[in-house]
Amino acid sequence: MPKSITREGFSRYGRVIEYPERPKAPKNKNLFKVIVRQPDHGWRIAYLVVRERSIDRLEQHPDSLESFEPVSGKGLIYLSTKKDPRRVECFYLDKPVILKKGIWHGVVALSADFDVKITENSKVKCIYWRL
Questions:
Q1: I want to staple 73 with a disulfide (CB 3.0 to 4.6 A). Which of 6, 28, 91, 114 is the partner?
Q2: Is residue 39 part of a domain?
Q3: How do residues 42-68 score in pLDDT, each as one tens digit?
Q4: What's the pTM value of the predicted model, to 2 decimals?
Q5: Bridge partners of 111?
């Protein structure tokens, strides 16, 4: 009979990808936690809990691809290839995606929490653009 995956029940085989010890507050601040890092191999997996409902900045990583893989909840991803407000596009983030290096991006929640798994380089340079 199949079992449900739990942190304890799965621990001998690996790790459940989830945000550990999720704080109850603040409700309007995103939470980001690196879950596993493989510096010898150049990548890491992180878990993002999106709680922000509006966007006031985008970011980019000039040297890293980045995946956004929805886990639960609903949300939007804002994207642009250039630092030009007229070129920003918005998509429902309802499928796993991989962003090219240097793509401006930002994520907002449509539900109370929007949980997203992220895979990217082990060390990531972040550049921010205030909207």
A1: 114
A2: yes
A3: 899 999 999 999 999 999 999 998 999
A4: 0.81
A5: none
- C-alpha distances (whole Å) from 6 to each of 14, 15, 18, 33 are 11, 9, 10, 19
Do the beta carbons of residue 105 and residue 77 sit within 8 Å? yes
Tokens (6 digits) for 72: 């639960």
Show the domain range for 98: 27-130
Is 124 in contact with 39 (CB distance < 8 Å)? no
Identify the H or E element spanning 8: helix 7-10
Q: 52 in a domain, yes or no?
A: yes
- The sheet with strand 75-80 has its strands ordered as 89-92, 75-80, 104-109, 57-60, 127-130
Most distant CA pair in the chain, distance: 54
54 near 100, Cβ under 8 Å? no
- Measured CA to CA in angstroms, residue 88 lies from 39, 62, 80 at distances of 33, 18, 5
CATH at residue 83: 2.60.120.10
User: Could you give the number of structural domains in the chain?
Assistant: 1
